[in-house]
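Build the 3D complex.
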Amino acid sequence: MNKARHSPVHSIAAHAILIAYTMIALFPVVVIVINAFKSRKAIFRAPLALPDKDSFSLIGFETVLQQGDFLLYFQNSLIVTVVSLFLVLLFGAMAAFALSEYRFRGNTLMGLYLALGIMIPIRLGTVAILQMMVASGLVNTRTALILVYTAQGLPLAIFILSEFMRQVSDDLKNAGRIDGLSEYRIFFRLVLPLVRPAMATVAVFTMIPIWNDLWFPLILAPAEETKTITLGAQVFIGQFVTNWNAVLAALSLAILPVLILYLIFSRQLIRGITSGAVK
Amino acid sequence: MGSLALKNITKSFGKVEVIKGIDLEVEDGEFVIFVGPSGCGKSTLLRIIAGLEDASDGTIEIDGAGVTATPPSKRGIAMVFQTYALYPHLTVRDNMSLGLKQAKRPPAQIAERVDVATKMLSLEPYLERRPAELSGGQRQRVAIGRAVVRKPKLFLFDEPLSNLDAALRVNTRLEIARLHRELGATMIYVTHDQTEAMTLADRIVVLNGGRIEQIGTPMELYNNPANLFVAGFIGSPQMNFIDAGDLGREDARTIGIRPEHIAVGSEKGDIAGRVSHVEHLGADTNVYLDCGEAGLICVRLFGEHQFEIDSMLNARFDPSRIYRFDGEGKAIR
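Done.
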């Protein structure tokens, strides 16, 4: 056992640091959510106060929902996020399996090349990406966003997953080969279930930046029918007047789906590796 | 239905040559054990026979048919792994039947074979459990059952007992011996444990540095080791090696004598030494004699004996059990 666990002083210090960090991290979220339920005057009078009988107002949500297109924005965000996530996990896991399982010429080099994407931000290539999308006629489509996000998510996914797949017992894969399973069955039925916690980690790390992104929707898909929720919320921010009720309400609503997805994946994170395969 | 022939098998990983030309014939129904120190290539050789690894050169024949380019599932083999390698998401029954299901055998036949293997290994109570709910010994029995169900021409075992504790190891060893008798199947077994090799094998293949040092029955290896390596590897405690010069002999470079073939006493023998350590094992007593120039000599006495540390003892070698080796380590016969 760790000695620090038994010492109350260390325990209190650790908890104090963690609680302080939690408060700092949650503060903006809490401010957004409580102010979303207040009237405009109340927001500016006392931004930190909880909504009470006088200040409570759903005007923000009414405005957002009356704008009509908000459901569409939601749908766009969800489609883009879920499809990108699926592609990143599928292709990331497949590439990671190939890198960790098979010996071939240039294996290490390929791994390094794929990991390079973690260090170089994809936004540096925005101009080239835009030119490519214009040339292929994909501007203002969800496909453009999905392609870009898949490319953006793959390097980290491959990096993390190949590390985990190396730890999956060789004997187990070989037992599958002797029993006549195809490489695809070995990958989908034996290896993937064992790296599920790693997949969940990758899913969370991939999903949140995609959902929150403003940059690529603004550049590649700003049309009304392909707007994502983060871009949609910007209509309430004007150069001269900003409808804070609506902005805060839109952001509060935008938190919900990503929160639900996170809860789904975090259950997987906690559940842990199915044990008993080896040893 | 289960002979194996390896012809000039070599294997290199990059520039490192791990298997350096191996020729071996295994007859139908034989129990052959590969032993050797770690890194000698024994596991690699087994994986080449299984088809999990491609040989760089050479051919493999099972039952007279070339299988060098056949995938593992079509070679008619079954393998038991050190880490059991059970499918974690399947029950014991499904673990055992997966291979046959993949081969598209009729369900009645699958059920019957699983039944037979289950009875043979007394696995009835565990059929619906998952591997996580079994103990180590039970898991290894399931892994053996999975191999039995396939009715292979060739059983391959890759250090199957290394992860078990001592008592279970003895039990499972007996189980494997019984299985070999009942099935009459050809078995190839890899281990670094010479007790397993001596007790189970019809023939032992001693490997070192990617080469076969000697092939023979356990007693042939014990009584007639071909060289220093085999002499030192087979037998525990290890054979004593003494420079022939230290014994005043000129008919060899090195003299080998097993600890159990030395007697000690007060009258003058072949060599004298100071007692440096005594191990009491109950049935045996191992005495280590410091013989100066000749080094440390281990003497194995049967029964219980008491010796004072630092007392002087004379050791007498059984003259019919002295092994002589030349300058290259080869036995002089």
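Chain A touches chain B at residues 169, 171-172, 174-181, 189-190, 193-194, 274-279 (CB under 8 Å).
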